[in-house]
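Me: Here is a favour to ask of a fellow structure person. Could you put it straight underneath, so I can go through it closely?

Assistant:
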Amino acid sequence: MWRGTVGTVGSGGILRRLRTPVDEIDRAQLSEWAKAQGGIPLRELPLRVPIAAVGEVRSVRIVPRAGADALEATISDGDGSLTAVFLGRRRIGGVAPGRRLEVRGVAMAAGNQRLMFNPIYRLF
């Protein structure tokens, strides 16, 4: 028979984790992973200079741009986001929600959104 009280194991760590929303835990883990990969934090993304950024694909959509389709993948590192725009593409194998990747290129601002056109990418 098990004897003990809740909260004695891990000195409060378990209770704190149980009270923390799952999306907050996921965001923190993604942020730690992105930092470990050496990517620039997306909320501090410098513009108009070559950079490498890492994160997880949150959404993928096809948007018409200048008369041709473009695949837009929104990437998050837990603290910020960047939209990678692949012009003339409707699909890229492996680029799907939940997939982690690195993008390399030059970022620009469009309103409050950060965009990177036709980046070089690497899947994790």
Observations:
- Residues 22-37 form the longest helix (16 residues).
- The chain is about 20% helix and 40% strand.
